[in-house]
Amino acid sequence: MTIAETYTEFAVREARGVSSTYERLALAVARDDEVRALLGTLPPAKRQPNLLFGVVRWLGGPVDDPDAFHDFTVANWPAVAAEMGARATQTNEAGRCAVLLPVLAALPQPLALLEVGASAGLCLYPDRYAYRYGDHLVGAGEPVLECEVGGVAPPSRRPEVVWRAGLDLNPLDVTDPADVAWLDALIWPEHAHRRARLRAAADIAAADPPLLVRGDLVDDLPALAARAPAGATLVVFHTSVLYQVPAPRREAFATVVRELPGHWIANEAADVLPYDALPEPPDEVRHNVLALDGRPLAWTRSHGQAMVWFAGA
Q: Which segments of the chain have a pLDDT < 70?
């Protein structure tokens, strides 16, 4: 896929109806010969719209005006390129816990959670957040994670978590203001509710920090999994992470995780992991596939705002 096609697809399938600012900006980049040429000097994995837009925001540049964005990006390209090379789209959206909850709550309790690509570990606290599925409320307190759900009854309880750990090439620290600022820069401009949710979730994590280990998802996963306490159900999970991993390493990871005790929850785009058959998605908007132990269960939206269950109970 060309850079223009990547940015057009992002505009149409991810930003449309979700962020008019990023839809407009992505379409502008798709037509911008100069910015596309600069992006072409980066490795393919570093050309992502979310990464470019997040870095420009991190550097104080404008994203609400495509012309001003163009001028800032071109004038500051050495700094933009350096940050894009050093950083990754570590969007740590606690809202994704809302689509994980139906699976987590149904597994044998208590749980030992191990998140691959954990970023700052905000998705390691599904037992500490409150959830609203339509009129159905689960738990209490802040933040409240709202999710539209179809095809399955909302869960009636939160999971019991006795151990939580994350594995990441570059784990972020929720007690570090600079790391939290980077997470904030990755939130789309209009999403004030997600910004407030980030702060509330970061406060929860900072009060009881998880075990975060710097390491590789293939080479270092078994050793970290071995640290989970006996008597708890090990759950290895990841959300919107593997698309950044080359296909051979994805396959190696799948082999390793299947050999671990416990369960594996994947929440990734449909073209990231192989499944024998999938139903048609609800609409043309980009969806993830929620799967348990290699069995696809539901379509989910990327920030956890909706899910449509298609598997049996």
A: 313
Give the contacts of 19 (CB within 8 A, at least 6 positions apart).
188, 189, 190, 191
Which 8-state DSSP code applies to residue 280? Answer: P
For domain 94-309, give its CATH number from 3.40.1350, 3.10.450, 3.40.50, 3.30.420: 3.40.50
What are 148-173's pLDDT values in tens digits? Answer: 999 999 999 999 999 999 999 999 99
Q: Side chain identity at 259, as an amino acid letter?
A: E
What residue segments make up the domains of the chain, in order of their start?
3-86, 94-309
Give Cα separations from 139 to 94, 98, 126, 159, 175 (angstroms): 15, 12, 10, 10, 25
Q: Sort residue 123 into left (φ over 0), alpha (ψ -120 to 50) or beta.
A: alpha
How far apart are alpha carbons 129 and 295 in whole angstroms?
Answer: 26
Q: What is the predicted pLDDT for the residue at 313?
A: 57
Q: Which helix (H) or strand (E) holds 234?
A: strand 233-239
Q: Which of 148, 174, 21 is nearest to 95 (CA)?
A: 148
Confidence (pTM): 0.86
Task: Tell me the β-bridge partners of 213.
Answer: 167
SS (H, E, C) 106-146: HCCCCEEEEEECCCCCHHHCCCCCEEEECCEEECCCCCEEE
129 φ, ψ (degrees, to nearest 5): -95, 160
The partner residues of 39 in beta bridges, in order of sequence, read: none
User: In whole angstroms, what is the distance from residue 126 CA to residue 95 CA?
Assistant: 9
Return d(Cα 17, Cα 288) in angstroms, integer.
17
Cα distance between residue 211 and residue 121, in whole Å:
9
Q: Specify the pairing of strand 161-168 against strand 111-116.
A: parallel
Q: What is the pLDDT of residues 220-236, one digit of tens each?
A: 999 999 999 999 999 99
Which amino acid, 46?
A: K
